[in-house]
Amino acid sequence: MNNHGNYIVSLGQIAKWLATQAESLGVDILPGFAADQVVYADENNDRVIGIITKDVGIGKDGKKKDNFEPGIMLKARQTIFSEGCRGSLTKTLYENVKFKLRENCSPQTFALGVKELWEFPDNHPEFDKGLIMHAVGYPLDWKTYGGSFMYHFNANGVNRMALGLVTALDYENPTLSPYGELQKLKHHPLFKKMLEGGKCIAYGARTLIEGGIQALPKLSFPGGILIGDSAGF
């Protein structure tokens, strides 16, 4: 894998920038509203015409609170589903026998990526702006697919490093902890000396698509399409 000449970027920052570009073109962005149901043209469920957002103001007991607001219906000629891995609405589309989206593909497989974000002082001897490392295997056993990644970058004048581990979710060992495996990785001599003198300022995790081209479903159906992780890319 050759990363020379590439850029290290924040996907979150790119998404924010893309949002401003979309809004400048007249796109309405509604953050904070989760899509809850797929809307079909009729009871035959053979053409999608939009979605309904989730009701808000529901108490833990399932009862409506004073601030209850019902979900709203958003209609469109084409609805684009981009929910990440195993999105709740995408799963209902897969189950729709009229669309047969997964009729001629292999089952999808998944992995879990766990990442920590570290910060370093300006004079840290191991910080190397632009350094990228990808590795396969360690600390996972030979039966478990996965690997690690590391990026050294400067964000607004601050030296930072992203360190993470991806573990396929078909691992056989029921006691395996992807987070625990990341902690083992940090004790490897290479990473241990890099982390000395730094501090962890954030962490996170997300599921990843791993099925490959043979697991791609049919991507379009009447009234909509699948993109991104929802589609299996």
TrEMBL record:
Signal peptide: none
Broad enzyme group: oxidoreductase
Catalytic activity: a ubiquinone + reduced [electron-transfer flavoprotein] = a ubiquinol + oxidized [electron-transfer flavoprotein] + H(+)
Keywords from the UniProt entry: Electron transport, FAD, Flavoprotein, Iron, Iron-sulfur, Metal-binding, Oxidoreductase, Transport, Ubiquinone
Cofactor(s) needed by this chain: [4Fe-4S] cluster; FAD
Free-text remark on how the cofactor is bound: Binds 1 [4Fe-4S] cluster.
Boundaries of every ETF-QO/FixC ubiquinone-binding domain copy: 110-208
Pfam families in the cross-refs: ETFQO_UQ-bd (PF21162)
Domain of life: Eukaryota
UniProt-listed Enzyme Commission number(s): 1.5.5.1
GO molecular function, one term: metal ion binding
Function: Accepts electrons from ETF and reduces ubiquinone.
PANTHER family documented for this protein: ELECTRON TRANSFER FLAVOPROTEIN-UBIQUINONE OXIDOREDUCTASE (PTHR10617), ELECTRON TRANSFER FLAVOPROTEIN-UBIQUINONE OXIDOREDUCTASE, MITOCHONDRIAL (PTHR10617:SF107)
Protein name as annotated: Electron transfer flavoprotein-ubiquinone oxidoreductase
Species in which this protein is naturally found: Naegleria fowleri (Brain eating amoeba)
